[in-house]
Design goal:
- The protein is mainly α.
- Among the domains are: 52 residues; 61 residues.
- It has seven helices and six strands, in the order αβααββαβααββα.
- The strands form two sheets. Strands 1-3-2 form a three-stranded antiparallel beta sheet. Strands 4-6-5 form a three-stranded antiparallel beta sheet.
- α5 packs across α6.
Length: 166
């Protein structure tokens, strides 16, 4: 009998301690916001139903906000929801001018970075250096890149027309 009574007292004291811990936890966490849900590019792609490359393009164009977590890019749930609503309503997605790095231009044009630097230094592709110096990073505006691509397309079209007429 004493043993059962002692067990009941121990159980009650355990329950009391648990209640105190729960109350203390509630007091410390009360009013704190739930941390934002972050998605990878792959997850955002599945949610929005567009390719990962398109997600990356929208991030570079500043039309889809993103967060850098170390080397990784993450998208907040709120930003994805907002983007989805803007697309669904037909509202124009905000646009900000963009500057590409030489590495990004190389990826877009499927060239080596060395070839992009040669194009920049020769003036065939308009860009600018951020600082003076041999190893200064280059930036290319979206308009300059679009102009270069258009000139290349026009040149190829002329070559095709010349071959057809000969």
């Amino acid at each position: 009998m004493k043993k059962k009574k002692l067990e009941n007292e121990i159980d009650e004291s355990k329950k009391e301690i648990l209640r105190e811990i729960e109350d203390e936890f509630k007091a410390k966490t009360e009013g704190l916001e739930k941390p934002p849900t972050l998605y990878t590019i792959e997850e955002a792609s599945e949610i929005l139903g567009i390719s990962e490359n398109e997600i990356i393009r929208l991030i570079h164009l500043k039309r889809l906000p993103s967060i850098r977590v170390g080397k990784f890019i993450r998208l907040r749930k709120e930003d994805i929801d907002d983007f989805f609503e803007r697309i669904g309503s037909g509202e124009e997605v905000p646009f900000a001018p963009i500057l590409y790095t030489a590495e990004q231009v190389a990826k877009i044009l499927q060239l080596s970075v060395d070839n992009v630097w040669k194009l920049l230094k020769s003036g065939k592709l308009k860009g600018f250096q951020i600082r003076n110096g041999i190893r200064s990073p280059w930036r290319v505006t979206k308009d300059s890149l679009d102009e270069y691509i258009q000139r290349r397309m026009d040149k190829k079209e002329q070559e095709i027309q010349t071959r057809k007429s000969n």
